[in-house]
From TrEMBL:
<dbReference type="Pfam" id="PF00881">
    <property type="entry name" value="Nitroreductase"/>
</dbReference>
<protein>
    <submittedName>
        <fullName>5,6-dimethylbenzimidazole synthase</fullName>
    </submittedName>
</protein>
<dbReference type="InterPro" id="IPR012825">
    <property type="entry name" value="BluB"/>
</dbReference>
<keyword id="KW-0560">Oxidoreductase</keyword>
<dbReference type="InterPro" id="IPR029479">
    <property type="entry name" value="Nitroreductase"/>
</dbReference>
<dbReference type="InterPro" id="IPR000415">
    <property type="entry name" value="Nitroreductase-like"/>
</dbReference>
<dbReference type="InterPro" id="IPR050627">
    <property type="entry name" value="Nitroreductase/BluB"/>
</dbReference>
<keyword id="KW-0285">Flavoprotein</keyword>
<keyword id="KW-0288">FMN</keyword>
<feature type="domain" description="Nitroreductase">
    <location>
        <begin position="16"/>
        <end position="182"/>
    </location>
</feature>
């Protein structure tokens, strides 16, 4: 059998539509086997040259979590000051992280000089290593949603300032800081839409023929 069943495909479509970026978490823990299962699934992602350049760090140290929260506050204040008028007011209302409540924090890095893959596929486009890491993150995001778990990507941070605290090897690039946990709720539409910040555009707006 080459295709999955119609029922599965309908469920998959529902999953894709129901995935959300989550910023409001309950504090109850994520069972260890479940988290490891999700990371196993992310480890199945496609990668350039089969290099598997993703590196997952489970951030458990209160000191590191506090450093990330401080970095968010600084970057968010700087970002807020770049808006004016009604847009600035809306920005201030947005909740853009769930760092304080999410029971699990993941830092996801990219090994930019992996021996694995023997350089295949990335000679002219070295960024395909990072692209591969994002493929893994997307799988994690969807797999988590299938379990009823929420993920929130926190990009409002200056990773340069945090590299030292995390003692990252020089060849590891910071790609994503993710909050993971049980959501207070899954919204039907992106929170940024609900808050009037931005709207999802239909396919016709982003599809061209040349
Ligand atoms: C690379 C990336 C970075 C993001 N960074 C943030 C962030 O720092 N804070 C936040 O609240 N949401 C962040 N998001 C979530 C987006 O705002 C969200 O995906 C978008 O509004 C669509 O909503 P949905 O994911 O719920 O469909 C990020 C998403 C991506 C893909």
């Amino acid at each position: 059998m080459h295709a999955f069943s119609e029922a599965f495909r309908a469920e998959l479509d529902a999953l894709l539509r129901a995935r959300r970026d989550v910023r409001r978490f309950r504090r109850d823990p994520v069972p260890e086997p479940l988290l490891l299962h999700l990371l196993e699934q992310a480890n199945l992602a496609p990668s350039v040259g089969l290099s598997q350049p993703w590196r997952f760090i489970r951030v458990q140290s209160p000191k590191l979590r506090a450093a990330v929260a401080t970095a968010f506050e600084a970057a968010n204040a700087a970002a807020a000051s770049g808006y004016e008028g009604a847009r600035a007011e809306t920005y201030k209302r947005l909740k853009l992280e769930g760092l304080g409540q999410a029971p699990e924090h993941l830092l996801i890095c990219c090994e930019t000089a992996p021996a694995q893959g023997h350089g295949l596929g990335r000679q002219t486009q070295p960024q395909t290593l990072r692209d591969s890491v994002v493929c893994a993150i997307q799988i994690l995001w969807l797999a988590a949603r299938a379990e009823g778990l929420g993920i929130g990507w926190v990009s409002i941070l200056d990773p340069q300032g945090l590299r030292e605290a995390f003692d990252l090897p020089p060849t590891w690039e910071w790609v994503a800081y993710l909050c993971v946990g049980w959501p207070e709720a899954f919204l039907d539409i992106p929170e940024l839409e609900a808050e009037g910040w931005e709207q999802r555009r239909p396919l016709a707006d982003v599809l061209e023929r040349r």
